[in-house]
Fold:
Amino acid sequence: MAVGDLSLPVMLPINGVRIGIAESGIRYKNRRDLVVFEIAEGAATAAVFTTNAFCAAPVHVAKAHLQAGSPRYLVINTGNANAGTGEPGMVAAQVSCQALAGLTGVAPEQVLPFSTGVIGELLPVARLQAGLPAALAALDADSWTAAAHGIMTTDTLPKGASEQFTVDGKTYKVTGISKGAGMIRPNMATMLGYVATDAAVAPDVLQALLRDVVEGSFNRITIDGDTSTNDACVLIATGKAGNAPVTRPEGELYSALHTVLTRVFLRLAQLIVRDGEGATKFMTVRVEGGGNIQECCDVAYAVAHSPLIKTAFFASDPNWGRILAAIGRSGVPALDVSKINVWLDDVLLCQNGGAAASYTEAQGAAVMQQAEITIRIDLGRGNYSDTVWTCDFSYDYVKINADYRS
Structure:
């Protein structure tokens, strides 16, 4: 059950990017499960990947190929993660790149592979190879919406964002898609995300820009605290808008691009939370008054990951003592609980470490009936703040994950 508005905007085509989608039968028949991105020659490509030590074979290969040269194609399959598959999995990932390279006349190192789905099963690469000609035949600049469908696994809806902006009379576009609904707690990456702009940006600036916008978006969401083996996020700058390349993190164009990318990435990240497996509540956890950013995040994630808090929100039960317990176990050193205040939206629950005199159960219950709720925590330790977005745990979360391989 999705929470709030997950509608797709008009997905603006990006000059220099074409996308093809096909059915290859990786896991299921009659399902679009293979997506190919074609990137114009001369484009800059940046990426971040999961930090899970058991990262998938395509992550290893994509990292190596990104370092080796300028990517011209991305190949993405769903239904099979090709993780935990050892050397055969590495071979399968490399063969998928070689197959696409052979059909397009580029070097295998110019192909980046991505997989998502069941962990521990070898990628049926022959099926992927068989689907590539159809995906290439379908290449089109207007296929962003179809691609958003093609990368889905347990997602209930496709996820996309698109904007355009003008600097010095020149119009630029940014369009992106993401997927994810469970096994979500990114760590310097996202689940799968692909964003492109027609602006020209130097590769080193693009990589730094990606890391910056990811940190405040995909790295601030969680469904269940599980960092996937396959997380990857790609940012492409084709340069087809015709501007002089942005070579430094400064100037009007850089500032405008940073602002728009921040909005696009945040939208894509929050869509994942809104479509969390079985989600019925969209929860914002904001921690203020921290001594540093790290302890704000530690507290926010302790709250966002608590099964007791998440199930209470599903039940619309204002059992706010569970929030205090999570704050207390977050690991913040020398935490003075007598300075802590906690709100549900504008309702003060806890004041100076104890029940607020003004609080009534009826106030808390009224807030908990809402589909979107903010937990605000003031630690009373300093001037730092940060925000994490999450969702509740419902019966359906258990059902979806219990039946995932069925």
In short: The CA atoms of residues 115 and 127 lie 14 Å apart.
